[in-house]
Write a structure and sequence with these properties.
The complex is a heterodimer of chains A (about 110) and B (about 110). With about 110 residues, chain A is an all-beta fold. In chain A, strands 2, 4, 5, 9, 10 and 11 form a six-stranded mixed β-sheet that branches. Chain A has a five-stranded antiparallel β-sheet with strand order 1-3-8-7-6, with no helix packed on it. Chain A is globular and about 45 Å long. In chain B, about 35% of the residues are buried. Chain B has no helices and eleven strands. In chain B, the strands form two sheets. In chain B, strands 2, 4, 5, 6, 9, 10 and 11 form a seven-stranded mixed β-sheet that branches. In chain B, strands 1-3-8-7 form a four-stranded antiparallel β-sheet, with no helix packed on it. Classes of the chains: A mainly beta (about 110), B mainly beta (about 110). Chains A and B meet through strand 4, strand 5 and strand 10 of A and strand 5 of B.
């Protein structure tokens, strides 16, 4: 099982749709989880951290299921500007400086 | 603030040539990283530094060397470039061991 797995997509959705991405991780000792966004030919940027209790930032909701070792990102009311690749990122544990990046899920929001 | 900058933005090398990629940050961050991103692969950590004068190997360090003589700069060197080093290189810095602020990237082609 790969360390961090994501459905590569692409997900093609109409404007206004709700779309959800899942990500699974293999290291049960992982402590911190994030979603990054990467636009085409640009650098990754932090979208949001993922907390155990779940968290929301505007149209974006992130959830963590430790028992099943997966993370999800829900985008409501999709905008054209949401088109990007979404990277699931996992920090293995305390004292580790490494982050493990998923390969990303590509989202295209269509007018 | 410029954030994280990378020099150069693009470069074409011939096999066996050497070059140095420069990363600079003006946020006074302790942590700095070099990643490479290849099609179909997640971001992979090459080397990192937890402070001025310190460096450590990441996931894929072979063929690369680094130096952090000044807190704000992190240099990545390729002593003898190989076609397998064709990639997009991202530098990142962070104030903690999980945040990452990425530079715009360097696109390197080795022929």
């Amino acid at each position: 099982r790969k360390e961090v797995e994501q459905d590569p997509g692409p997900f093609n959705v109409p404007e206004g749709a709700t779309v959800a991405f899942n990500c699974t991780y293999s290291n049960s000792a992982s402590q911190s989880f994030f979603w990054y966004r990467q636009d085409c030919r640009k650098e990754p940027k932090l979208l949001m951290s993922v907390y155990s209790s779940g968290n929301e930032d505007g149209r974006f909701t992130a959830q963590l299921n430790r028992a099943s070792q997966y993370i999800s990102l829900l985008i409501r009311d999709s905008k054209l500007s949401d088109s990007a690749t979404y990277l699931c990122v996992v920090k293995p544990g305390a004292g580790s400086y490494q982050l493990t990046f998923g390969k990303g899920t590509k989202l295209s929001v269509i007018p | 603030n410029a954030g994280v900058t990378q020099t150069p933005k693009f470069r074409v090398l011939k096999t066996g040539q050497s070059m140095t990629l420069l990363c600079a940050q003006d946020m006074n961050h302790e942590y700095m990283y070099w990643y490479r991103q290849d099609p179909g692969m997640g971001l992979r950590l090459i080397h990192y530094s937890v402070g001025e004068g310190t460096t450590a190997k990441g996931e894929v360090p072979d063929g690369y060397n680094v130096s952090r003589l000044k807190k704000q700069n992190f240099l990545l060197g390729l002593e003898s470039a190989a076609p397998s080093q064709t990639s997009v290189y991202f530098c990142a810095s962070s104030p903690t061991d999980f945040m990452r602020y990425f530079g715009p990237g360097t696109r390197l082609t080795v022929t």
